[in-house]
Prior knowledge:
The structure is a homotetramer. By secondary structure, the first copy, chain A, is an alpha/beta fold. Chain A has one domain (18-366): TIM Barrel. Helix content of chain A is 37%, strand content 17%. Chain A is built from 15 helices and 18 strands. Chain A has an 8-stranded parallel beta sheet with strand order 7-15-14-13-12-10-9-8. A two-stranded antiparallel sheet of chain A has the order 1-2. In chain A, strand 12 (189-194), helix 8 and strand 13 (210-213) form a beta-alpha-beta unit. In chain A, helix 5 crosses helix 6. Chains in contact: A-B, A-C, B-D, C-D. At the A-B interface, strand 1, strand 2, helix 4, strand 11 and helix 8 of A face strand 3, strand 4, helix 10, helix 11 and helix 14 of B.
Amino acid sequence: MQDIGMSKRAEQAYSFDDVAIVPARRTRDARDVDLHxxxxxxxxxxxxxxxxxxxxxxxxxxxxxxxxxGLGVLNLEGLWTRYEDPLPVFEAIAAVPDVFAATRxxxxxxxxxxxxxxxxxxxxxxxxxxxxxxxxxxxKNVLQFGHVVEQSTPDFFIVRGxxxxxxxxxxxxTPLDLAKFIQTLDVPVIVGGCADYHTALHLMRAGAAGVxxxxxxxxxxATLSVLGIEVPMASALSDVAEARRDYLDESGGRYVQVIADxxxxxxxxxxKALACGADAVMLGAPLAxxxxxxxxxxxxxxxxxxxxxxxxxxxxxxxLGTLEQILLGPSxxxxxTMNLVGALRQTLASTGxxxxxxxxxxxxxxx
Amino acid sequence: MQDIGMSKRAEQAYSFDDVAIVPARRTRDARDVDLHxxxxxxxxxxxxxxxxxxxxxxxxxxxxxxxxxGLGVLNLEGLWTRYEDPLPVFEAIAAVPDVFAATRxxxxxxxxxxxxxxxxxxxxxxxxxxxxxxxxxxxKNVLQFGHVVEQSTPDFFIVRGxxxxxxxxxxxxTPLDLAKFIQTLDVPVIVGGCADYHTALHLMRAGAAGVxxxxxxxxxxATLSVLGIEVPMASALSDVAEARRDYLDESGGRYVQVIADxxxxxxxxxxKALACGADAVMLGAPLAxxxxxxxxxxxxxxxxxxxxxxxxxxxxxxxLGTLEQILLGPSxxxxxTMNLVGALRQTLASTGxxxxxxxxxxxxxxx
Amino acid sequence: MQDIGMSKRAEQAYSFDDVAIVPARRTRDARDVDLHxxxxxxxxxxxxxxxxxxxxxxxxxxxxxxxxxGLGVLNLEGLWTRYEDPLPVFEAIAAVPDVFAATRxxxxxxxxxxxxxxxxxxxxxxxxxxxxxxxxxxxKNVLQFGHVVEQSTPDFFIVRGxxxxxxxxxxxxTPLDLAKFIQTLDVPVIVGGCADYHTALHLMRAGAAGVxxxxxxxxxxATLSVLGIEVPMASALSDVAEARRDYLDESGGRYVQVIADxxxxxxxxxxKALACGADAVMLGAPLAxxxxxxxxxxxxxxxxxxxxxxxxxxxxxxxLGTLEQILLGPSxxxxxTMNLVGALRQTLASTGxxxxxxxxxxxxxxx
Amino acid sequence: MQDIGMSKRAEQAYSFDDVAIVPARRTRDARDVDLHxxxxxxxxxxxxxxxxxxxxxxxxxxxxxxxxxGLGVLNLEGLWTRYEDPLPVFEAIAAVPDVFAATRxxxxxxxxxxxxxxxxxxxxxxxxxxxxxxxxxxxKNVLQFGHVVEQSTPDFFIVRGxxxxxxxxxxxxTPLDLAKFIQTLDVPVIVGGCADYHTALHLMRAGAAGVxxxxxxxxxxATLSVLGIEVPMASALSDVAEARRDYLDESGGRYVQVIADxxxxxxxxxxKALACGADAVMLGAPLAxxxxxxxxxxxxxxxxxxxxxxxxxxxxxxxLGTLEQILLGPSxxxxxTMNLVGALRQTLASTGxxxxxxxxxxxxxxx
Lengths: 367, 367, 367, 367
């Protein structure tokens, strides 16, 4: 704890940029590294979930991520459930030259209401692919559309907002009771974002199969500018990993997956997230760089189209290669944007670890 | 305390950029947040005072801020009390292309003397609007023009300088005795800027209804370059909040409002200021971005036109929208410049607080 | 140790940019400074080894470095052992205008297999010059080509990879057993890069005459972006210097040379490396700036041409002068890029030291 | 002390940019501030010495600084003592467009030998003005030209090099024995630069009237790049101020002036230097910005023309106004470059001090 003047104290918090992984005295063959990840009944080839963001995930790209060994998640309150055919809308967003005008355009196109029948139809498209089916809603839409989602019996229900708590208090109306909602569902629920020990612990107690750590959606700087709120990811993950351990003990053995969601610019950040205690990562911008990405070289999150208080921008991203090249390589760039899985495998090999769980103990330094 | 070499020690001080607010385990509905603020007999919809700076406040914009629920303050030693019709002067300032030439232009136009009759007339214009009437003088002009202001019985008298102390010492002449001045006035006085515990405590003892913390007027960098003086705002507010608590005790219950005045670039900084202990904020640059602002896309403070030692620049600001949009939204930008009140409401909701006083206890991290 | 959240701790690590050498109360004549360095049976005029990187070292430049008093090292798995005449390949690399396209070009030209007969021929060219003969392989090529190198009986065998450990573990195949390899060789072996106490100690125990500290090859930022791995050099050297001292004790007097390899931008960094505990430095980019350098104004390391996960870029370097001017001066630039040896001599003189060993005790400050 | 890895420790050092002066609870009238400074028998209006750098000081500008109340110092081994008429040389230096070519031009023109008769003539020009007469040599030229300077009986002899020690050791030749030299002179000697407690203490014991702290001449970054040496000024001044105090005690009352020489970009830095313990400052770049400055918009120090290892650049500086405006105002810029004396007066007034000696106790914060 540091003193900020005479009446306030604060902990120093660290972002991924503040830390690095250090080599250990043993190295291993990359072929001996095992990246498999299991959450609830689902086993994936590696611990990567695609973020349910319109710029990255269409039904087609969500299916493709599944085919490549990860988990695709469709945003069930985005353009695909507001528009029968959202492609012209994506085109219109990409056509706006100016970043400020883009905010207004996003506010405009997302004013279109969500159609329950489109939620059902999109989930059927995913189901038809044979891949795992996962869709997301924000907390404020769960009461209205949660049962629609439930009827399609997806494999995962993601409840994802900028800041989610298990104790949302409202004087008027009925707020979402996350614990009750999760317990009545047959589907495993992943919920977040959160960024501190107590919120995470409450979400674990509410029955979540996984908690998302971070604000998600590339909106970190905007959230800091608009709300003054930020929790740097390295510290946040370390705190939530402690909540996981404490909850594991208090629950007599229920292991809740900790999923880093935000500030993950490339493969180096993915490795750091795991070394800080995450079990898996949720990726937005890195996948929006795929040739198949619906965003056509642009990336935005749900914060970017808030009607009265947008907290994110439409940002430009380079289009680098196919989803397969981005996830599995080969890479032709030395910046951590391609062959994300190969890079993670190499980091574990270089530091002598064979699996994610043991890699969470990797040594860090502060830069 | 850190050692700076062998013979000097210093505390680490923190600016708003060094800190962030962290979420708590509870969230609330933004509709349940109460931002009302009371200073002396005056109740405002939210704790925002417009800074008495010519680039932002004309009689018309001061009235408009009041109409929108805040408190407008007119600079009573600026262009509106030096010129019968200052509009051509504003035009001339905006017409200077070069920032260095602008300093000379400011020095030139502010060489025109202050007219007591214009002070009276401007205050009458404010009074006629039905909104709260508030005007400011710098300490050096209080002796000469204070009584002129007093005769108009404004609702607030703001004594605002770059660095104000309750113990100004002069060998020759009669310096302003702030305590005596405040006690003889019928009008509540807000006084500053100050930046440390002791100065603030003395200003509180002198009878101020509120103390301004900070140098004000966007002149922070220039003050550091020219004088070597700076007190980062997060630490300064925390120190002055401690003085407020100590004075509350020693006075047997007089609560002096702590008002952050400076380094407030947008809504994120406003939230941080309150979380560091401020009761309210005084805004310059954010309001100079209004379409109604007299500065026409430029912003400057009183330091910028000092005749022999200017300590601030005429800076360019983007013109973003009406005062109403800037204060109350809706926002079309994710940078904290619009819907300042909505953003503050959202920060409190996201961190689980329903009022400013409890939000002062919000948890911070160091970035 | 600092807390990174509740479940993780880390040491603060320092790079050369974080430290500076401080003057002492005595100064000396630069002429009285003795920079001679001895490793195994070899005595050099100053403690500088040229890095075996294709952009800097051809047979001709390796010989020239020797003639000038340092030690040249040829990369025995680079373009000179893949191509009979690599000059057109160097031209082709330099002709690619775009940095991203350059990565693909490097991947392409380095796909050509290594020819054992070219290894032998290049070493013969070096031998014919009368200078010390030194060549390098990466660990993964030692098993296949190590005996070819050995047959040419070079004066030094450098085993150099991005991250080398004495305990490489592989489930399948036979990994390189460094200790056994070194013990069977008649030639002294320099091995690295490593970056921590334990790895360095194991490499010392394996019989290395010198250990390379750092990732080498200008790939620091890329390694951090791609793998999340970094060990800032000032701290890494200090750690490995401690291993040297401990191994000196446990071995009853075997002094293993600690050689800084990486992050050495110019003469200031060379001085800092020695003051952090290094006995010598291995230079890549500084020598790639020579008019004789094969890279023709470009510089790259082995990480830059990895087939599926490149971790370095082809970077542009200014061509400044001859190898002689760069190493021995005179300098016409005040940026530490020329007269590297003269600068080092001046640093020792300015801080009162007459030899490298005592200069390792020089006082540092944190900037 | 911080650990840099396992075998090295270092103190954190602070530059002027790391610190700021904080206001105190008392303010004063600027008219009540007394800036007079006395060194040996000489009283100046304010504690400012002009640095003996060719770009700033000609005989004419040295005289003008004296006329304005400060102390001008002429470089006695620069262009004015190498050339009968140096004006064409200054023109030639300014005419070189490229910064790298400028280094070669400086090396070329300073290859011209120093003429003893010109030393005598320049000192006579200064004497004729009626102002204080002060000239400088570097330590390496004192043995050869010191007696020439002495014969002209200047009021001050400045011995100024990049790094000066009282214990220069040389195996061959006779090094300068500063203590003996100073004791045999009738003229008070100011000597430096130094940057640490021990060197400063030895220079004080050698009999110096003042010690220069810092590397001088704007060469800080180049010295760091080339030699790896730097001592941030805030810490260095604090250390040397401690040496002053200890020497005051051990000498039974001899007070040696501590003069900050380097990193002084403007008036804010001057104030910080005094608040860190300096008694006075020596200014180069700020005076090179004068219309009268011989450098014609360029600035360089003696390090910039070293024949084999230059450690400074010819840098561009804006030409802002006359020496009088720069020193005494009025200022038309809010960046600390004009009205240096007025700014210093204002800093003392704003923080409640009336003289430099008490201002050395001013409170600092770390930014």
